[in-house]
Specification:
By secondary structure, the protein is α+β, with helices and mostly antiparallel strands. Helix content is 56%, strand content 14%. The protein has 30 helices and 23 strands. It has a 6-stranded mixed beta barrel with strand order 14-15-21-18-20-19. A 4-stranded antiparallel β-sheet has the order 2-11-1-12. Strand 3 and strand 4 form a beta hairpin.
């Protein structure tokens, strides 16, 4: 009992060490669990939402639309739980300028169901549900009416069905097969699209150019009123996928098994079957056309034959009359009256030759009969020519049918290809990667501080330990006094850390996340396993340090422990050997130097602890500086143009005329911009049929006219880059990179994410879904967005092959020689404000789809989520620095109580004692800061390299001000600690402190 009371008394006396260990554990556990818990809560709530709304696991698209046979084949695939055929149509409407939307049919099989936020779901034809983004932009509300106009090639289905050949005929399918939606609409509800969780009322992680392949809004309509028997896409749910977290690798593996099965046999068979359906439809149309033509020709021939028969009858009648008259005249000259009467009553019999001669004579003698015969002959001739021409045309079409109908391509995609899904996942993964790295530094610092604190605690009780061991107490029992002390401090600090880690930090992160994404049903959850392991990790580290400190003391005999510890043997420090310097240092300076360098363990612990905290602060500020400069570097330095204008292909000429007529452009470059995909080539022909596999990036494909390849360098800074270390990269000389016809130039952001370098082979997908294998000629410095630059000639080489033509929207060989330049890069006159205003005014023009001002992008670029996490990390690092300095300062004082008492006996005033002690701590702090600044840059580079986010490359930069802030903050914490330490120095009693320990 006395042993326990003494242990509790010892614990109460060491309350400062207890608080230090508890606080370090609290911060470490909070960092370890907090960022993880915030991301996990977001992951789980999103996964629950996706399961509730039936977000598809797999989506199948086809360049020729999907038929009922395709849907039936997908249902038979092993592992498929549900299949939903979907129809959609692109429409336009007037909303402060021309806007586009996708009319999406609400599925009846429970897949991709929109989440109702306000009003009710549409049920009747003409009713729609819209997103909150549309409500915000349009100012409309529930009950408002809207009229839309279907685009000429509004949906993917109609695009793929209209497989017209160069002759302009439509052999494959009628436009009545394409989906068609009502055009007079009434808004009855506001919904959240599960495929895009972006919060329109909050702030976005970044402002980026929207590709031309996407529409501005999505309208959801019921099946009632939708016509068309061809489907735009098919969405699938995979068996067992809902039981897995959509963000885990196990989910990806489950889905991949099904996509592999579809890619294996179903896709090939249905591609052939669908093309055969198109061929059969074309042949049927040709056969129908032939039958219809034959019928028309037969009717025309019958009419001509009837007219000719009537004509012949008329001529034969005249011939008969003339023959009878001739016979009557001959009889009158030499016969009696009876003979004459008999001759007049009988028509003479003429042979065929005589009759034909008489016909020709009669026709020739009559202009009317001549004209009638010519008309009949001409009609017959024209009919014969039409027959021959039609037959030749139909034969030609039969021969051209196989080449004019495209090879059908299926594209099997998973959730990774959804822009909203991939953006959320990449944001959370990046933040989680920071949460996985920073606790390591906190753990190391915690172990170092615990070792320092517990080693001093054990050393202070040296004689008491010898007494207990001499009295027969086991070394384990004696060590338990310190082990339980450290364990209790870890458990209390860890418990408070779990509260902060599973409640405080996640609540902060989720507030930031909800400003970027809409996540219904979001709630905070506790993870018992991870929380317990988090505490256990710090408990093991701290207890290991305590055990080490106990073993170091208790391995001695009780007699040795009962005697005072022998003073450290005197030795010279390196500075003493530099006589010119040493001789000029004062007495107190020499004492300070000896105290700093002779006690190496204290030197290492203090410098290491301060350096670690400083490095964390610098690391956080480095990430902040890197993110803050992304917009400026991209839109001021890399993009030299001031304005990007994009239009539909049909409005390209009108758009250029509009921009030219405004007189604001000083120089410009016409280009073609398409939304595409870049993937690592598997070594095949690049037509795998699976767009955007796991190793893929969404890109902006920029085709440049052959005659203006050299002008690209005036609009975009072309600098070759090579892989660097610690977040850096080797950047070549500006202007040393040229676009040519031997390959494509890939943006650094995409190349870094995929591991692509100059000379690599990649699979490119253009805006029409056509895939081709391309060579990377160079990697260009690029931080935001994933641009891929290609020359006009190389573009034609890649996408104008036979396979390229066999896809939706493919052009004939005659048309494909000249691309439609649907975009313009331009330099403008005027201030940044006027350029921004001009871009906004252009968007109101009906010929302009999107106008982007680089000045506006540079000023408005934000990455709020990363900024919030950086602020959190810096705050926690500052708290750790404060605790570390407090622990080290108190340990330093407790080790040197007799020394401080001696100074007081020698006549040192309190202020002089403060200066004597604090000077050492400040010097050690400065040394730690000096070491921590470059260490922070090193760690910051490594962490930013781990932030592998789509369309972003973090070019690490630490501003001088950030180094200053980190150094000043650490020194400020050191000064703050002095305010707590000075009263401790004042309370040292020289008499009691100098008593002999014996």
């Amino acid at each position: 009992m006395a042993f326990v009371k003494d242990m509790l008394r010892m614990w109460a006396h060491s309350w400062k060490r207890f608080i230090s260990i508890a606080m370090i554990t609290l911060l470490g556990v909070a960092v370890l669990t907090g960022i993880y818990a915030g991301c996990r809560d977001a992951f789980r709530s999103t996964d629950r939402f996706f399961d509730a709304q039936g977000l598809h696991d797999v989506q199948v698209l086809s360049t020729a639309g999907l038929s009922n046979g395709d849907i039936a084949a997908l249902r038979k695939v092993n592992g498929v739980a549900k299949v939903q055929a979907e129809r959609s149509q692109e429409v336009t409407f007037d909303l402060d300028g021309r806007k586009s939307a996708t009319m999406q049919e609400i599925g009846t099989n429970g897949i991709d169901q929109p989440y109702l936020q306000e009003g009710r779901m549409p049920k009747k034809a003409g009713e729609i549900a819209v997103t909150r983004k549309f409500i915000r932009d349009s100012g409309k509300r529930i009950g408002s009416r809207l009229t839309v106009t279907p685009e000429s090639a509004s949906s993917d289905t109609s695009d793929t069905n209209d497989t017209n050949g160069a002759d302009g005929t439509n052999e494959t399918s009628g436009t009545d097969e394409a989906p068609s939606f009502p055009t007079k609409l009434t808004i009855v509800g506001v919904v959240l699209d599960p495929q895009n969780l972006s919060n329109p009322d909050g702030y976005s992680a970044m402002t980026s150019f929207r590709s031309t392949a996407t529409t501005d809004y999505t309208f959801f309509a019921p099946s009632d009123g939708v016509t068309g028997i061809l489907y735009t896409s098919a969405t699938l749910l995979v068996k067992g996928a809902a039981a897995e977290s959509t963000f885990d690798e196990s989910y990806e593996n489950t889905v991949k098994q099904v996509t592999d099965r579809i890619d294996g046999t179903v896709k090939t068979d249905r591609q052939k079957a669908r093309r055969q359906e198109l061929l059969d439809a074309g042949n049927k149309k040709i056969a129908d056309a032939r039958a219809e033509a034959d019928k028309k020709f037969a009717d025309a021939q019958s009419q001509i034959d009837a007219n000719r028969q009537q004509f012949n009858q008329q001529v034969d009648q005249i011939v008969s009359m003339q023959a009878g008259a001739a016979a009557a005249g001959a009889a009158a000259n030499g016969a009696n009256a009876g003979a004459v009467a008999a001759a007049g009553a009988t028509t003479p019999q003429l042979d065929e030759t005589t009759r034909e001669t008489m016909r020709e004579t009669i026709i020739a003698a009559s202009p009317e009969l001549t004209q009638a015969k010519q008309q009949l002959d001409q009609a017959q001739s024209q009919l014969n020519e039409q027959k021959a021409s039609t037959e030749q045309t139909l034969k030609t079409k039969e021969n051209e049918l196989k080449t004019s109908i495209p090879q059908v391509r299926w594209y099997v995609q998973d959730r990774q290809q959804l822009g909203g899904f991939s953006a959320l996942k990449s944001d959370l993964d990046s933040i989680q990667s920071l949460g996985n790295a920073f606790p390591i530094v906190f753990l190391l610092v915690a172990v170092m501080m615990s070792l320092t604190a517990m080693a001093r605690m054990v050393e202070e009780d040296r004689s008491l330990i010898g007494t207990y061991v001499g009295l027969g107490y086991g070394r384990l029992a004696v060590a338990s006094r310190y082990l339980l002390f450290a364990l209790l401090a870890c458990l209390i600090g860890g418990g408070l850390g779990l509260i902060a880690g599973f409640l405080g930090i996640p609540a902060f992160l989720l507030v930031v996340l909800q400003g970027m994404y809409v996540m219904p049903g979001l709630r905070l959850e506790y993870d018992w396993l991870y929380g317990s392991l988090g505490i256990a990790l710090f408990v093991v580290g701290v207890l290991a340090a305590t055990i080490y400190a106990c073993v170091q003391e208790m391995r001695q005999t009780p007699a040795s422990l009962l005697r005072p510890k022998a003073p450290r043997a005197g030795s010279r420090i390196l500075l003493e050997r530099i006589r010119p310097v040493w001789n000029r240092i004062g007495f107190l300076g020499k004492v300070t130097a000896r105290n700093i360098f002779r006690f190496k363990s204290r030197l290492i612990m203090t410098v290491g602890g301060v350096a670690g905290c400083t490095a964390l602060i610098v690391c956080g500020l480095a990430i902040n500086d890197t993110v803050a400069d992304l917009g400026i570097k991209q839109y001021r330095d890399i993009y030299q143009y001031d304005l990007m204008v994009v239009s539909d292909d049909s409005d390209a000429s009108a758009m250029r005329t509009k921009v030219a007529s405004d007189g604001r452009v000083t120089s410009s470059l016409d280009v073609r911009i398409e939304s595409g995909d870049l993937a690592i080539s598997g070594g095949g022909d690049g037509d795998s049929g699976k767009a955007g596999s796991s190793g893929s990036e969404s890109i902006q494909l920029v085709a440049v006219p052959e005659k203006h390849l050299s002008d690209l360098g005036e609009m975009v800074t072309l600098q070759p880059v090579s892989s660097g270390i610690l977040g850096t990269s080797g950047v070549g000389k500006t202007g040393s990179l040229k676009l040519d016809d031997d390959g494509v130039i890939v943006a650094q952001s995409a190349a870094s994410a995929l591991g692509v370098k100059a000379g690599s082979k990649v699979r490119l997908t253009n805006g029409d879904g056509v895939q081709a294998t391309a060579k990377v000629s160079a990697v260009n410095r690029n931080l935001i967005g994933s641009d891929v630059y290609v020359s006009e000639t190389y573009y034609a080489k890649l996408f104008d092959s036979k396979d390229a033509k066999n896809t939706k929207n493919s052009k004939s060989s005659e048309d494909s020689e000249a691309l439609t330049w649907n975009a313009m890069l331009a330099k403008l006159s005027g201030s940044d404000t006027s350029q921004t205003d001009y871009a906004e005014s252009l968007e109101e023009d009906s010929s302009v789809m999107k106008a982007v001002s680089c000045a506006h992008m540079a000023d408005s670029f934000k990455f709020d989520l990363m900024g919030a996490v950086v602020a959190l990390i810096v705050a926690l690092a500052g708290g750790l620095a404060l605790v570390v300095l407090f622990t080290l300062a108190n340990t330093n004082v407790s080790e040197r109580v007799r020394e401080m008492a001696t100074l007081k006996v020698l006549g040192f005033f309190d202020r002089e004692v403060h200066h004597y002690v604090n000077r050492e701590m400040m010097i050690l702090t400065v040394m730690g800061v000096i070491l921590g600044l470059p260490l922070g840059r090193l760690v910051g580079g490594m962490l930013t390299m781990a932030l592998n986010m789509p369309s972003l490359y973090f070019e690490v930069e630490v501003k001088p001000l950030s180094y200053v802030i980190a150094a000043v903050a650490t020194m400020a914490f050191a000064l703050l600690v002095q305010l707590f330490v000075n009263p401790v120095l004042d309370r040292i009693d020289p008499i009691s402190s100098l008593k002999s320990v014996e």
